[in-house]
């Protein structure tokens, strides 16, 4: 059964006179809302102008966490809720999440007590949903667990546990779960305006970016879950209202696994701009991030600034025995945070990551801010509000214990198809269809060529970028290798989607430009 099928979705769109809830935005927040709403029995349509998780939701630091920095800021409420949601998420999607050990290396004796007490509080706030107790480590123990750590002046460290995940794969699991509950989800269908009756928002105008066809969609309530583009939709409602967001970008560098031998991550508790920094093992690579740089304009393809790259390399060099240089970078990815605008002039690193729910006079529901870890809680609150505006029957939220699509009782981290969870055997069947499909896309990538066919058939992939950036994480793991794999992937996609040779050439050229932008200049 194809849960995500664009042709079926377009057919439903044409045949449905009115939806209970229309969700604009197919990132973590919008997909979570669609799942929640559909699980309550509401007729739900989600529209995404590009691809699911195209923006910030596929460019996170890959952590399911409470936020140790927010604890230091005294934001106990945010941390407690995030830790509880962390526990639920790891239980509901073990195929794309796991427990991760983190070590805070200490180079002054007082840091052992200071950070140790803070992380003990972190454990206590998690309660029964905790992932394991933090503990002090000797210098020898730190070196054993982190063989590549810079041990000059090292006193010891603190070990604690948080969650890690594959963000775009989690987004797809949520999308499939929403579809299984009855939601209709469409990517590459862009909202161009709002439908109003008597001053109230009652739907939207949208354009299919593939066919050019336009639609006027009726809905009892409309939810704006567009992340960094939140203000664009709000201005469709009221052009004169001020922007509500402050934008900040976070850059991440991807290095070879050899820079961080061992299974634990490193938490650098304080950089010169007041952020924490992470050096993480992720999908067989080493990930270094992130920065917090205020920017003025939202972009689908934000570019790392030269000083951000230098900042990350310099800080990594302080903590790793082998200092990484630009030539070591396999890929760079950058995400933009939609931070709720502050009334004073504080830095973006100090702005709250709490989410904000806004109800306009027109009835437009806007949810913004927040973080990946709390997507489910954000969705619950948003659907509660939207259902009331739409006059829908009140139905309790069912998502706390809801296993996401692909759930398995015990994930196998050694399985190269493990991210598919319960669908892994179906993927293997596709890989067996054609000679060469079970072979790697590229020697330096952990993905099989035939996964492109599966992505087109079952995961609504429409472009080479969809496959190499989000259905697999090839672009993030090795931009050069992904660019070399693009022609073979484009050829398979063209056969699956009925495209011609001109489309193949355009797709390869577009993706190779994207890959070039994912490397240092």
* Rg from alpha-carbon coordinates: 23 Å
Count of DSSP H/I helices = 16
Q: Report the top-level CATH class of the largest domain.
A: Alpha Beta
Counting DSSP E segments of at least 2 residues, the number of strands comes to: 18
Named at the architecture level, the CATH assignment of the largest domain is: 2-Layer Sandwich
What overall form do the CA principal axes indicate? globular
Unreliable spans: 343-352
Helix amount, in percent?
25-40%
Q: Any idea of the CATH topology of the largest domain?
A: D-Amino Acid Oxidase, Chain A, domain 2
**Helix/strand/pairing category:** alpha+beta
Largest sheet data = 10 strands, mixed
Please give the domain count: 3
User: Terminal Cα separation, in Å?
Assistant: 45 Å
CATH superfamily caption of the largest domain: D-Amino Acid Oxidase, subunit A, domain 2
- Which band does the percent of strand residues land in? 15-25%
Mean pLDDT: 94
Describe, in plain words, how this protein is organized in 3D.
The protein has 521 residues and is α+β, with helices and mostly antiparallel strands. It has 3 domains: 6-56 and 169-243 and 352-390, 3-Layer(bba) Sandwich (FAD/NAD(P)-binding domain), CATH 3.50.50; 98-163 and 246-349, D-Amino Acid Oxidase, subunit A, domain 2 (D-Amino Acid Oxidase, Chain A, domain 2, 2-Layer Sandwich); 418-516, Alpha-glycerophosphate oxidase, cap domain (Helicase, Ruva Protein, domain 3). The protein is built from 16 helices and 18 strands. The strands form 2 sheets. Strands 3, 4, 5, 6, 11, 12, 13, 14, 15 and 16 form a 10-stranded mixed sheet that branches. Strands 1, 2, 7, 8, 9, 10, 17 and 18 form an 8-stranded mixed sheet that branches. Strand 8 and strand 9 form a beta hairpin. Helix 2 (28-39) packs across helix 10 (375-390) and helix 12 crosses helix 15 (479-497). The longest helix is centred in the last third of the chain and has 19 residues, at 479-497.
């Amino acid at each position: 059964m194809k849960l995500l099928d664009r042709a079926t979705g377009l057919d439903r769109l044409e045949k449905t006179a009115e939806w209970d809830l229309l969700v604009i935005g197919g990132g973590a927040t919008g997909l979570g809302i669609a799942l929640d709403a559909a699980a309550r029995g509401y007729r739900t349509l989600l529209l995404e102008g590009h691809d699911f998780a195209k923006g910030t939701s596929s460019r996170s630091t890959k952590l399911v966490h409470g936020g140790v920095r927010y604890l230091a800021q005294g934001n106990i409420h945010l941390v407690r809720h995030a830790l509880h949601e962390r526990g639920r998420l790891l239980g509901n999607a073990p195929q794309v999440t796991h427990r991760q050990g983190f070590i805070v290396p200490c180079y002054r004796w007082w840091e052992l007590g200071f950070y140790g007490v803070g992380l003990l509080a972190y454990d206590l706030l998690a309660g029964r949903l905790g992932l394991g107790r933090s503990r002090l480590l000797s210098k020898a123990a730190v070196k054993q667990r982190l063989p590549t750590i810079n041990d000059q002046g090292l006193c010891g460290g603190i070990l604690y546990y948080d969650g890690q995940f594959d963000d775009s794969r989690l987004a797809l699991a949520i999308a499939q779960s929403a579809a299984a509950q009855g939601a209709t989800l469409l990517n590459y269908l862009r909202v161009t305006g709002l439908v109003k009756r008597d001053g109230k928002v009652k739907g939207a105008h949208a354009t299919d970016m593939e066919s050019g066809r336009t639609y006027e969609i009726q809905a009892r309530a409309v939810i704006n879950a567009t992340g960094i583009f939140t203000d664009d939709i709000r201005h469709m409602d009221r052009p004169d209202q001020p922007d509500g967001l402050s934008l900040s970008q976070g850059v991440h560098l991807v290095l070879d696994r050899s820079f961080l031998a061992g299974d634990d991550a490193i938490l650098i508790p304080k950089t010169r701009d007041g952020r924490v920094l992470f050096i993480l093992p992720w999908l067989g690579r080493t990930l270094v991030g992130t920065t917090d740089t205020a920017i003025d304009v939202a972009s689908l393809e934000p570019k790392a600034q030269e000083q951000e790259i230098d900042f990350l390399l310099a800080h990594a060099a302080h903590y790793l025995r082998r200092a990484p240089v630009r030539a070591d970078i396999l890929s760079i990815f950058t995400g933009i945070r939609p931070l709720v605008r502050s009334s004073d002039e504080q830095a973006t690193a100090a702005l709250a990551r709490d989410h904000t729910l806004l109800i306009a006079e027109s009835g437009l529901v806007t949810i913004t801010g927040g973080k990946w870890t709390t997507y489910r809680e954000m969705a619950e609150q948003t659907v509660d509000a939207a259902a009331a505006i739409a006059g829908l029957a009140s139905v309790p939220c069912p998502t706390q214990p809801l296993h996401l699509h692909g759930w398995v009782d015990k994930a196998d981290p050694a399985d190269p198809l493990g991210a598919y969870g319960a669908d892994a055997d179906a993927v293997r069947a596709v890989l067996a269809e054609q000679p060469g499909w079970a072979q790697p896309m590229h020697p330096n990538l952990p993905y099989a060529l035939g996964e492109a066919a599966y992505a087109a058939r079952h995961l609504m992939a429409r472009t080479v970028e969809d496959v190499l950036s989000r259905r697999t994480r090839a672009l993030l793991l090795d931009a050069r290798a992904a660019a070399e794999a693009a022609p073979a992937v484009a050829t398979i996609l063209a056969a699956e989607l009925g495209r011609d040779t001109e489309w193949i050439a355009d797709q390869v050229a577009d993706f190779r430009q994207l890959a070039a932008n994912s490397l240092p200049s």
